[in-house]
Amino acid sequence: MGNREASDVSLGGETTKATLAKFTMAAAGFVGTIVFARLLGPFGIGGYYLLMTVIQVSNTPINGLSAAVQKRLSESNFEGAEAMTIATLVALVWTGIGVASAYLFRERFAAFVGFSEPVLAFGILMGALNLFSLYQGALSATGQIGRTRWIDAFRSYLTLPAQLVLVWIGLGAAGMAYGEAVATLLLLAPLLNSTANFSQPTWATAKSLWEYAKYSIPNRYLSRMYDELDILILGLLLTEGAAGHYGVAFRLSLPGMYIAMVASSGLFSRVSNLSSKNEPITDDIRNTLAFTSLFAIPMLFGGTILNKEIVTTLYGSEFKPAALLLTGLLFYQLIRTQSTPLERVVGGLDRPDVVTRVYLVLFVVNVVVGVGLTYLLGAIGVVLATILAETIRYVALLVHLHQEGLGIPLLQRPIIEQIFSGLVMGAALIGLKSFVPISSWFVLGCLVATGAITYFGVLFVASDQFRNTVFDSLDDIYPTWRDLM
């Protein structure tokens, strides 16, 4: 692993690089979805998605173990080589159990995913993703989230052509699984080059890893249940159409979370590393929270003003009911951009048990309130319940951190400046919308681009801290950029 620690790297610079990688991954995924939907049709691509769902559920314990690996390896002077040996062995054994189970129920498995002989594809892809998750966690423990995300982005770039070739030669949905497995195995090499340091483990190291993993593993299950609960409630109480409207709106709202997603991983490692050395962490938390809502705020204003136009232009008039859901989910994502980093801070302070208790409360609230409001209000009811649950998560985590002696304000000046810039952008969009008919993707794209330019232009002028953050990020990514001025 070397001597580099998470506190040695620039969190702002790494977050910028990781966010760029996240957007390119999203673009690759969007293109892949369109291409393979046309090549395989709904049933063919549906089989691949069902296989991936089984793999993702099966891999949840290893993803939880990966969080424990990231936590322990980010601590100063922890025996990382021993932890890597333990985690790798556990991942291989768990993959073996998964393959044996799939083989035992191979006929039902094949009927479920819709293509023959899925066990081999399942086993190879499950094992590859298990190891990839572990070694990603190990690299993230050093604070290099930019490098981690770009390796994952290159995996996406390799996945698409590999899948195309294998689907073209007639392997169908199985070819998509094999293609992703090939790309994942190829990208294990740079991860191993950065993290491969193994040694014979001791019981002390295994016990330390387990002390965190015994909470981080159930936390991954609880998090997945919390994320999927809305769709389940809508599917059970309303119709498949309501669930489809929700799914479309949720996907459109997700880019608002990109900065928070990547920054939270770097913040987790940094807090863990600094706290293990008894060094202060409050400034890093405040600086991160100041900009995790950078995309979510303009998306809320713009998405509320253009919600019907966005949904119907992109997906068709039959998805018009998703417009109101989009506004609600954009507000949910805004709260989530603040609560997610706080959750990772609590985990970085070695309190995953607190996160477990919070998720248990959220699950109960979301079920009880979600079911009740869905009966009363329809699909928007479940969104309101989710907003309430996410607000509870934010407040509960904030209160816990205040009890730990960390003074984290509700609203920092950069967030107020972002809200002001969003209001200016919203006023501009309302004015344009009043006399520009939105009749095509092109017009909608021009309006969205105008809104983005207005928002970031106003913010750049109004916020000293935003300007400094932009310049610092450029210095980290391209140190000689000032010479071009």
Overview features:
single chain, 485 residues, mainly alpha, 18 helices, globular
Architecture overview:
The protein is 83% helix and 0% strand. The chain is mainly alpha-helical. It has a domain at 1-201. Helix 2 crosses helix 7. The model has no long low-confidence stretch (mean pLDDT 87).
Short description:
The protein has helices at residues 11-58, 60-74, 80-104, 106-113, 119-140, 145-195, 203-237, 240-253, 258-276, 282-289, 296-305, 307-315, 322-348, 352-377, 379-403, 413-435, 441-462, 464-477. It is mostly helical and 485 residues long. The model has no long low-confidence stretch (mean pLDDT 87).
Helix content: over 70%
Structural class estimated from helices and strands:
mainly alpha
Mean pLDDT: 87
Distance between the termini: 38 Å
Strand percentage lies at under 5%
Instruction: List segments where confidence is low: pLDDT < 50 over at least 5 consecutive residues.
Output: none
Structural shape:
globular
Strand elements, count:
0
Q: What is the alpha-carbon Rg in Å?
A: 23 Å
Largest sheet: none
* Order of helical and strand elements: HHHHHHHHHHHHHHHHHH
Number of separate helices:
18
